[in-house]
Amino acid sequence: MKLRVVPYILFIGLLLLMLPIGCIDINNNLSAPEQKKTVKIIAKRKKSEFWDVVRMGAEAAGKEFNVNVEFWGPTNELEIDKQIEMVREVINEKVDALVLAACDYVRLVEPTEEVIAAKIPVIVIDSDLKSDKVKSFIGTDNVGAGYMVGKTLVDTIGKNGNVAVMSFIKGAASADQREEGFFNAIKDYPGINIVTTEYCSSNIDLSESLTYKILNEHGEDLDAIAALNADSTVGVARAIEKRGFAGKIRIVGFDSTPDEIDFLERDVIDSLIIQNPFSMGYLGVKYAVDVMNGKPVPKIVDTGSRVINKDNMYLPENQKLLFPLTDE
């Protein structure tokens, strides 16, 4: 009897040795740990004060929901072809979800839909995309925010005056929509004369240079400048201050970078329409995780905007938006 048992035990032992390690589960954690999923964020620009805050929000969500967050983008918002390449590369990288801020409303549609066809869900933030295949758009109601710029400008200078507009990139959804909202706001005021609309390509130095051009052409006749993003606002404020027009030519700007807040405190800028970039980054990652887990997400999320001036900038609720912080 003993002679038969030994070969039987040896036979079972050999079978166990032949089995793949992953198949052995004796409640002692021999199986490999589950790999963290990766959410890729492709912003309009890899580095700027606005996108730094978006990244803060995204990384906070990454920690909370236990996913890897990779943040990328071109060096400037005019590098649309570069951003297209980055989006297509997502397929080869085999990430689990993409969060995209599109540099162009139309040109990014085809590569984005290629990503979606590869079974990688896409969440769009900040600047919308002309596609109904993305899971969600998270960002400012840019038409509404542009309308705020126009109404605030009228409240600042009254129903009559010469005004210049400093926009950023023609064809970018956020720029086009803010312009739309702005012009809707002032259309009922025939005394508001728009002397020019310029595009600074989201470049502070170019915005400053274009503002000098406006001042040279319109000089003492100009009453105000409406600036529609952070870079355009800072460039305008620099030029206005250097030429000695602070407080004379009024500025209604957009966003809340440290430079803009400094100009606001020193009365170079009258008002800022501020967004919530932290929420864009945070919700972009959160909803990407929800989609990966099979949960429904809202099709459109307005992260909000509000008017900030020297009178209300120190209120606690506004301080949280002006200086977003996260726990490390």
Outline the structure in words:
The structure is a single chain. This protein is of the alpha/beta class and about 325 residues long. The protein starts with a helix and ends in a 6-residue tail after the last helix. The protein is built from eleven helices and twelve strands. Helix 2 (about 50-65) packs parallel to helix 10 and helix 7 (about 205-220) crosses helix 8 (about 230-240). It folds into two domains: about 40-140 and about 275-305, 3-Layer(aba) Sandwich (Rossmann fold), CATH 3.40.50.2300; about 140-275, Rossmann fold, CATH 3.40.50. The strands form two sheets. A six-stranded parallel β-sheet has the order 2-1-3-4-5-11, sandwiched between helices. Strands 7-6-8-9-10-12 form a six-stranded mixed β-sheet, sandwiched between helices.
- Low-confidence spans: 1-30
Sequence of strands across the biggest β-sheet: 2-1-3-4-5-11
CATH H level, superfamily name of the largest domain:
Response regulator
**Beta-strand percentage range:** 15-25%
